[in-house]
From TrEMBL:
GO molecular function terms noted in the UniProt entry: acetylpyruvate hydrolase activity; isomerase activity; metal ion binding
Region of interest called Disordered, as start-end residue ranges on this chain: 15-38
Residue ranges occupied by any Fumarylacetoacetase-like C-terminal domain in the UniProt entry: 58-253
Record-given protein name: Fumarylacetoacetate hydrolase family protein
InterPro entries linked to this entry: Fumarylacetoacetase-like_C, Fumarylacetoacetase_C_sf, Rv2993c-like_N
Signal peptide: none
Domain Rv2993c-like N-terminal positions: 1-53
Keywords for this protein: Hydrolase, Metal-binding
GO biological process, one term: carboxylic acid metabolic process
Amino acid sequence: MRIIRYDDDGTTRWGVAGPDDTVRGAEGDPFTEEGLRPGAPVGHLGELRLRAPLTPSKILCVGRNYADHAAEFGNPVPEEPLIFLKPPSSIAGPGDDVVYPSLSGRLDPEAELVVVIGRRGRRIPAADAMSHVFGYTIGNDVTARDIQKSDPQWTRGKGFDTFCPLGPWVDTAFDPSDVRVTCTVDGEVRQDGRTRDFIFDIPTLIAYVSGFATLEPGDVIMTGTPPGVRPVQPGDTMTVAVEGLGELSNPVVAEKA
């Protein structure tokens, strides 16, 4: 099942996309026992204005989860997951502008597979971790690299408004075990990796994160980015793709004075 959120005359609604990309409007909440109740068709995926498919209480991110990405910035491979947070205010949806802040001189996209939590849990054993997964979506961990490097903490460099595009949907039947993750900028492939190259796999990440933070339904874990990171400029369009899951595109725009 592919679950979306779409704009309906200024109101954001749930929808379910079928194999032919026809969308049915849906009532309810996918993260409750009752789930969503699909109704009548409301259009085609290509006709609807999609919004970010989630409004998580927490956006948990994993740094340096590909050895080659750590190496390209001269960083050591971590011995345990390197976790940071992005604020919910940083979320953007498919096609939304990503704003290049005037405070920064270097903006980098970071292509990521994103795990969506479906069941509440704390101190989840790795052996039970996948039972807490609702599905998967695509994310872009946009980073003001110069600010990230200048600050002792990564919050500011990773947390500007629009710095967390998510979408275009949540796929509840997706297999993330060995898929290609890429970032393309105006048709040029920059980042390119496979999830089999994770340093820490998804069960390990869920177990580690839930050791200090209760995971709630709808929370997301961004699993890290592959090598090939390079900066973008206003006017560029970033497209993050995960093989078999879809594409997430966002234009970069300069911050208005």
